[in-house]
Predict the 3D structure of the following.
Amino acid sequence: MCGIVGYVGGKDCADILVDALSKLEYRGYDSAGIAVFEGDRIVTEKTKGRLADLTEKMKKGHKPSGTSGIGHTRWATHGEPSDVNSHPHGNAKISIVHNGIIENYIRLKAFLIDKGYEFESQTDTETVAKLLDYYYNIEKEPIKTITRVLAEIEGSYALGIVFADYPGKIYSVRKDSPLIVGLGEGENFIASDVPAILKYTRDYYLLECDEIATITSDNVTICDIHGSEIKKEVQHATWDIESAEKGGYAHFMLKEIHEQPTAIKTTVSPRIMDGMPFLEECGITLDMLKSYRKIYIVACGTAMHAGLVGKYVIEELARIEVVVDIASEFRYRNPIIGSEDLVVLISQSGETADTKAVLRLAKDMGATTLSIVNVKGSSIARESDFVVYTHAGPEISVASTKAYMVQLSIMYLLAFELAYANGKITEEECKALVSELENIPSKIEETFGIESDCQYAASTLVNAESLLYIGRGLDYALSMEGSLKLKEISYIHSESYAAGELKHGTISLVTEDMPVIAVATQDRLFDKTVSNIKEVKARGAKVVMVTKNTVDVTSDVADVVVKLPVVRDVLMPMITVVPLQLIAYYTSVLKGCDVDKPRNLAKSVTVE
Ligand code: M6R
């Protein structure tokens, strides 16, 4: 959570900092601020609210003018969103921006208060700023000061630091929060993520834990906590700027929904050889896949929902037991895992704190770890034994859509490969499945033809206070994702329920005021789900049914029907999720919500 940036170069930097921050607003957007060197003075402007509020404030008041500075967009952890809690924090001598959580800040704050420091914010970050000041008064030199502070602070951090005695220099360090150093011509950057620097450069260093970077306009040096210089490999970003912009769509979410066919192609094509799944390039061999006792899939939110589809598909095709769990639960429940198990971590950002903690736990317990990650070089990707990158490109909307879709693609490839490795399907069957997976992008394009039906369905839901999503089997897994998407961006409460479980209690909630979205795409379970739909209809519920276009639905079953192009049942989730995403999207638009930046959320959840 939170985005940090820094710039040192020859240009006036306030606008550059704000522009770079605008690419990081997905990380948090409840307050924003910058600190810029005006000569050897650090001038700070910050405010509660969006970046647009900061820009407005600077337009009306003072816009700092100078060629180096740091900036921040916040997702509040300690202290409510307010002017005083906004970053940068510091004083006339030192200013910092921080992403992460300082876990021992209460103890450090007490120590500093004892030394005579006064605090004005409720943030953990202010403690770091004051601790830097305390040690700078002793050490009189930035790197030694930073090293002393690193020895004291516990938790996660990516820090951008400026010292008034060193104008034109930014110092930066990280632990368990991402940070890159962008390498330009006569200008250099720091940023929490690649999209922030793409407009200016594609070359960057990935800063590792406790490496300290010193950045000037024409030089970047990196040292460890003992002061020894470290040589880094330059990384090159291949994401294009266009894909980090809205490209004519009203919202990033809609654009990203429409990017799904391309994202699948880019993710799947390199993993197919001679018509068969080919994960060997990631180091995953058939022999290896055959050897596992059990597979655990652990993730958070939408990524966990992709894992649920994975469970159904792997168990169905490969007949291997799969346990799916939420990372924040799994990590604290003393799980039974060992060297015979494969633990799969799914994460778009590759930085989610709970998922990362499970990865470390699984490694400590001797399991093999495989991560499915979208962001290259992210912590989870780097720390896993094996990584399969999804190639969704940057996902900006907080509500995840295309990342989920490519996570599903990898789940399928893994299931096919496992099924083949275990002798549960023949080469011919495997090739047929792969070929149908390759055909999914064109089926999704076809599904966009029902966008107006989804818009209509949304119009029937927009005034509801609460909704139910129901389904069975794979459709239940999809219902969970549909429900999460709707509540996340439209603020309408919804719950997803296994259709057959309704009558064990939850059906008492059903009245004419509670619409039901019923997902029924699995032939084997269709009649059963229809019976459950009739049960809610009989209690007055208005029903939106999402089903195949080969099915005839009468008005005694559903009030609104969204009909989908047909693929084989096991692959239907890749089609079914599209209308669920669109229904959530249009409901949010009709309600006038902030689709891409829903309240209280952030894209990258780097705190537990
Ligand atoms: O970056 P990750 O995939 O690890 O993030 C996990 C969840 O925070 C994420 O999927 C979240 O649930 C989405 N915003 C939902 O749309």
In short: The two ends are 11 Å apart (CA to CA). Residues 300-303, 347-349, 352, 355, 398-400, 484, 488, 604-605 surround 5-amino-5-deoxy-1-O-phosphono-D-mannitol (CB under 6 Å). The mean pLDDT is 94. The longest strand covers residues 94-102.
